[in-house]
Amino acid sequence: HSLCAARLVQKFGYDLDQSAALAKAPAVLALLDAHLQRHDWLALGRPTIADCAVYPYVVLAPEGGVELEPYSHVARWMKRMEELPGFLPKP
Question: Does the model's pTM come out above 0.90?
Fold first, then answer.
């Protein structure tokens, strides 16, 4: 209820608490960044459905006002995702 919720409010007008979502987002991203500091992927040491499931929430988070710049390991993970064979960028 952070990265996605902030985007749902800002982009689609959902009636959710955007300030609460924005307040939670740094903790979520810090946890993800800490994991990705030690691991290239979210599970099993290789790309899995976990990466595919989490990636859209992260890459679209700025559309809700969430800043990704402070999270360098997340940025490197997103780049690895985007370099996977068959990757299709968002339209």
Answer: yes
